[in-house]
Amino acid sequence: MTMDAVVTGASTGIGRAAVKALVDHDWRVFAGVRKVADAESLRHEFGERVEPLLFDVTDADEVRRAAEETRVKLEGRTLKGLVNNAGLARGGPLAHQPVDQIRWVLDVNVLGAVRVSQAFIPLLGADRSLTGGPGRIVNISSVAGRIAAPFLGDYAMSKHALEAFSDSLRRELTIYGVDVVVIGPGAVRTPIWDKAETSDDAAYADTDYGPILRRFKKVFVERGREGLPPKALGEAIYHALTAPKPRARYAILRNKFFNWTVPTLLPKRALDRVMTRALGLTRRA
Asked: What residue numbers bound the domain in which 218 lies?
């Protein structure tokens, strides 16, 4: 029997790697993208195993239509997986970052996952008229879902919220047998680093954060390009969807002990000192 999954943000990076991992294991994937060109690219690479869905996670009507289209193609069967991967980051010093930018990040990364989940939960097993067992939701968070770095406050806020959403939703969906798993990767080698390198920080150049932000950006991009290959995340997503007893959360990153275990065990004040000293965020006279 064919297994079916929906993956949002499927055009590049982690989302596209998830599509490949699932197709390689004979799943059919409904790939959520915003552009026709991305839909055509996916069909060209993966063939009939991929059914592109054109929608923006911030548009409730488009999300609903995508769920209805998927329901028709499932022909009365349940959906086995939903991967909420669509996301973005802008970044900047929170003392100066425009609230509209922060709102946009939260709308995509948090409310986008809420909209998509609400639309597809009936197909995952809440609609008992469908045949087949319940499916799973995999939410793509980040190390930033637990550890908030300076200058990435908007992204960290959104991922902290996504993790809270995941925990609450997992407990609520127990009545349907639908599980929710969080994957929190560290840096992954995706096109996001090219975008980060060319992002315009001129709005902050004349603030006290200008030179510190430039130094942070250089280090941030360098480390990002040394991150895990997207394939590693694709395999982790497949595992989260298929393991008999998956963990509630997976942290997947290089040098896990130093980049995850130690920072999560340190007292917050101690971690503050490590981060601020490394970036030169020292008190000015």
From this structure: 3-279
- Within-domain flag for 285: no
Handedness of CA 125, 22, 30, 137 (dihedral sign): positive
pTM of the full predicted structure? 0.94
What are the backbone angles phi and psi of residue 257, rounded to the nearest 5°? -60, -45
| Residue 37: inside a domain | yes
Q: Which of 70-74, 152-156, 223-227 has the lowest mean pLDDT?
A: 223-227
How many domains does one find in the chain?
A: 1
Q: What is the predicted pLDDT for the residue at 227?
A: 85
CATH code where residue 44 lies = 3.40.50.720
Chain segment 163-197, per-residue pLDDT in tens: 999 999 999 999 999 999 999 999 898 766 666 65
Other Cβ atoms less than 10 A from the Cβ of 182: the count is: 26
In the 8-state DSSP scheme, what is residue 107? I
Q: What's the distance, CA 272 to chain centroid?
A: 25
So which residues are the catalytic ones? 155
Alpha-carbon torsion (252, 258, 264, 265), positive or negative? positive
CA atoms of 154 and 150, how far apart (whole Å): 10
Edge-first strand listing for the sheet containing 3-7? 50-54, 27-33, 3-7, 81-84, 136-140, 179-185, 249-252
